[in-house]
Specification:
The complex is a heterodimer of chains A (about 525) and B (about 260). With about 525 residues, chain A is of the alpha+beta class. Chain A has eight helices and 22 strands. In chain A, strand 1 and strand 2 form a beta hairpin. In chain A, helix 2 crosses helix 3. The chains are: A alpha+beta (about 525), B alpha/beta (about 260).
Chain lengths: ~525, ~260
């Protein structure tokens, strides 16, 4: 076997590993909640145990709703979690999966309110019903109608991801369902709306947005939880960066603030159930990570913890503060082959370290020779040595544990003040290049250039307020912002996707040729002997 | 790492099967028509123009590390060097990634050697590793263009925001410029600042276009059939989505009238 054939064989084996890793179905080693568990919604059953529904994230950010039954005394799952609600394929309101959940136990079974994640990542409030908690029937989006009219209130998500819903909670008071929805509107205006329904089918908006003491309209509402309390509702509200606040919300009149408490920064969502001696909360926790735990997952680690409180305010996190509760939060391996991936990456790092060392030696010899022989412009070589030695010393001593001081100041000066500033300065000059390039291209010399010019003007004007002012008199669909959005959403993105298809198929074909060794480009220069 | 969904699994085998089938057909002597791509046809003319002006030629393989796109760019580099070697012209290659350097060197040297002129230029002077930092790389390449004023500037591969630095510097130096990229966000910048722009899959076709290698040409035909399949799936999928959501599409159309 000659050298070239051997290298082709090795490349084939390495390629086969990645192809198999890609082709193995995800169920082989993983599950519906293999990457993240979040947004718990708990219901206490008559035997004292809990049913907890949660959002499990599995692939490309897609998600499903899972159910785990938990024994109250041992705080452990009594059976294996399983997916009970899958995202829709054709329905537009939960095609990307699910977000915040709120569950309630009613006479005929369970109602689950969830935020359906639409294709454009906006969220729609939806409802599903079930007799046993396992088999669910989706009843579609919940529309809060104003005064019974068919005008849909802003409860449905807007066109842009900036507007939409961030959290939901539900409670049953006097056989009437009350749903609380945290709405985020454009311009950072946030509000909590209340909807009511007798049958769960037709909903009406109850009054104006809640006027809550301490509620910040500019902060995003992360979590809501509600429990009935006689004719009132106890409402827990957690806003981003704010403490958890507990309100008593009467059917009419102003809500009263009962108190507030700081929770760990990791707490993102919560679901509260009433117990004999107080309250129990299921907390959705999220922590930013320096490195993602698996290649697919986000830079956020999410898990579910439990907490108990005698009064609804003084919470002590019992389980799951550092470790996932019971069987929840398993970080499964995507496939059997994935286990080898970190080791392969580590071996690459080792090889890179050797290559780097070799490169440093080469550079030193090369520039040293230039200085010794006064070849070309030795000042460049001297600059190399000065920069190399200074950066090495400042980084080594400035970032070593137990050191710092002046060395760290020097490191910060060289890296943050010099290197990054120079990088930013170079980047900022791109504006001037853009102007000169735009000036040349916007001279209308052909039909194509004319169309490009016209599109650019429409998009530019459509994305700034003056576009709206100029065409405010026209029907909405003919106003500049609408036309600009159509150009970007339909024309431009279609063209980009078309190009993208071509690129991907081209890359697949070339990869295939290289993998199978039919394309010699990669093996150029290798001795065939 | 992402894993194939059932639909992707099927499409993966269909596309691979088509490409391999067409490679086999091309190998057996089946003639294939390749449409003209202006940006690739102009390579010889650009090199000729640089020769007449007595200026060097610059070929930039982009920011890619070791990946299929880099090999695609390097195949084009080899062709450009072959054309330049015929007229004894140097091809300057700024390098962004350390791993690209030895590969570019190998392709560059081989092309001059195949033209029978292995010692015409010093590889150390023509191929320079500049910097892995985008800003530094863009600035260094722009400076190189200002100093040596190439008559032809080829940019084949992936680019970020530094694309405009390099292309505008080439424009100011009066070079005839050809860009070929799979980075579609940079396509508008190349269109406004280069004379010819090769977009998307045409970049992957460049190797076949230059070499006329039956393996690569067959692969191109397989790619085109795959694209037709995708187009058909999009059309059928759109119709199905409309029908399943709204019922009879004709009724929907009538509703708007």
């Amino acid at each position: 076997m000659n050298k070239k054939t051997l290298i082709k064989l090795l490349a084939f084996v390495a390629g086969l590993y990645f192809v198999l890793e890609f082709l193995l179905p995800e169920k082989v080693g993983g599950d519906f909640d293999q990457f993240e568990v979040r947004s718990p919604a708990a219901v206490r059953l008559s035997d004292g145990s809990y049913d907890v529904w949660y959002v499990g994230v599995y692939r490309r950010g897609n998600s499903a709703v899972g159910l785990v039954s938990v024994d109250a005394t041992r705080a452990q799952a009594t059976r294996r979690p399983e997916p009970v609600l899958r995202r829709g394929v054709f329905n537009e309101y939960d095609q990307k999966g699910f977000a915040g959940l709120a569950a309630i136990r009613r006479a005929g079974g369970f109602d689950l309110f969830y935020l359906g994640r639409m294709l454009d990542e906006t969220l729609a409030l939806c409802r599903a019903t079930s007799a046993d908690g396992y088999e669910w029937t989706k009843t579609g989006p919940v529309q809060l109608l104003v005064d019974g009219s068919d005008r849909q209130f802003a409860i449905s998500p807007g066109k842009t991801p900036e507007a939409g819903i961030t959290a939901t909670a539900v409670a049953e008071v006097n056989r009437e369902l009350t749903v609380f929805v945290a709405r985020r509107a454009l311009g950072g205006v946030n509000a909590i709306l209340r909807g009511q329904s007798r049958d769960g089918q037709s909903w009406s908006l109850a009054g104006k947005p809640l006027e809550l003491e301490g509620f910040v309209v500019g902060a995003e509402t992360q979590a809501l939880a509600a429990l009935p309390d006689d004719a009132d509702v106890l409402l827990w509200v957690k806003q981003s960066g704010d403490p958890l606040r507990l309100y008593r919300v009467p059917p009419d009149g102003t809500p009263k603030l009962l108190g507030s408490v700081d929770l760990p920064a990791e707490v993102a969502t919560l679901s509260v159930v009433r117990e004999d001696d107080g309250y129990r909360a299921w907390l959705g926790m999220a922590r930013k990570l320096d490195t993602p735990p698996t290649p697919e997952s986000s830079r956020e680690r999410t898990w579910i913890a439990q907490a108990a409180s005698p009064d609804g305010l003084d919470w002590s996190i019992e389980r799951g503060a550092d470790q996932p509760v019971a069987a929840l939060g398993r970080m499964g391996q995507p496939t059997y082959l994935s286990r080898a991936l970190p080791r392969a990456s580590q071996s690459l790092e080792v090889i890179s370290a050797f290559a780097l060392g070799l490169a440093v030696v080469n550079l030193v010899f090369l520039h040293g020779k230039k200085i010794a022989q006064r070849d070309g412009t030795p000042v460049h070589s001297l600059a190399f040595f000065a920069a190399f030695i200074a950066m090495f010393l400042f980084t080594y001593f400035g970032k070593s544990a137990g050191r710092g001081g002046r060395w760290e100041v020097g490191y910060n000066f060289m890296f943050s003040n010099l290197q990054q500033s120079m990088s930013s300065a170079v980047f900022s000059t791109i504006g001037f290049f853009m102007v000169s390039a735009a000036y040349r291209s916007f001279r209308v010399r052909s039909l194509e250039a004319g169309i490009m010019m016209l599109s650019a003007i429409i998009v530019l004007l459509g994305l700034v307020p003056i576009g709206e002012v100029l065409t405010g008199w026209a029907p909405p669909s003919l106003q500049l912002p609408a036309i600009a959005n159509k150009l970007l959403d339909l024309v431009s993105s279609s063209a980009v996707r078309g190009i993208y298809f071509g690129i991907l198929i081209g890359a697949i074909a070339m990869s295939l040729r290289m993998w199978l060794g039919t394309d010699e480009t990669m093996y150029r220069g290798i001795d065939a002997r | 790492m992402e894993h194939a969904s059932p639909a992707v699994l099927v499409l993966f085998f269909v596309f691979c099967g088509l490409v391999l089938w067409q490679i086999q057909r091309a190998r057996s002597g089946k003639r294939v028509f390749l449409r003209k791509i202006a940006g690739l046809d102009v390579v010889e003319e650009a090199v000729g123009r640089a020769t007449e002006m007595g200026r060097p030629i610059m070929f930039n393989p982009g920011l890619d590390g070791i990946c299929v796109q880099l090999f695609c760019a390097l195949a084009c580099l080899k062709y450009v060097v072959e054309v330049a070697a015929r007229v004894d012209m140097p091809v300057l290659v700024p390098v962004h990634q350390p791993v690209t350097y030895p590969l570019a060197q190998e392709f560059w040297k081989e092309a001059y050697a195949e033209a029978g002129k292995p010692n015409l230029f010093r590889v150390e002077e023509c191929i320079r590793y500049l910097s892995p930092d985008q800003a530094a790389f863009g600035a260094a390449t722009a400076a190189w263009i200002h100093r040596d004023r190439p008559g032809a500037n080829f940019m084949f591969g992936y680019y970020g925001y530094e694309a405009l630095f390099i292309a505008e510097s080439g424009q100011k130096a009066g070079a005839i410029q050809v860009a070929a990229t799979h980075a579609y966000y940079q396509v508008p910048f190349f269109i406004v600042s280069c004379d010819y722009t090769v977009i998307g899959e045409e970049f992957f076709a460049a190797g076949a276009y230059f070499s006329r290698d039956p393996v690569q040409i067959g692969s191109l035909v397989g790619q085109d059939i795959s694209k037709i399949i995708i187009l058909a799936l999009i059309v059928v999928g759109s119709i199905l989505a409309i029908v399943l959501k709204h019922g009879n599409p004709l009724a929907l159309l009538l509703q708007y009238q």
